[in-house]
């Protein structure tokens, strides 16, 4: 999923809005990747249990 968003666009937005201004260790891109990973693990399609008669 993260491969669909070009990294240079994310970096450009971070630079424009100064999202990493007071951040020293956990950058915006790293947080985005972590959130996408968490979303993929916890998404509802993983929780689906088919009903068998």
Straight-line N-to-C gap: 35 Å
Following the backbone from N to C, one meets helices and strands in this order, namely HH
Structural class: mainly alpha
List the total number of helices.
2
User: What is the arithmetic mean of pLDDT?
Assistant: 83
Query: How many beta-strand segments?
Result: 0
Major pleated sheet? none
Fraction of helical residues: 40-55%
SS strand fraction: under 5%
Low-pLDDT parts are none
Radius of gyration: 16 Å
Shape: elongated
What features would you describe in this structure?
This protein is mainly α and 53 residues long. 49% of the residues lie in helices and 0% in strands. The protein has two helices and no strands. The longest helix is centred in the middle third of the chain and has 15 residues. The protein is elongated, with a radius of gyration of 16 Å. The relative contact order is 0.14. The mean pLDDT is 83.
Furnish the topology, listing elements before pairings.
Blueprint: H1 7-17, H2 28-42
Short note summarizing the structure:
By secondary structure, this protein is mainly α. The protein is built from 2 helices and no strands. The relative contact order is 0.14.
Attribute tags:
single chain, 53 residues, mainly alpha, 2 helices
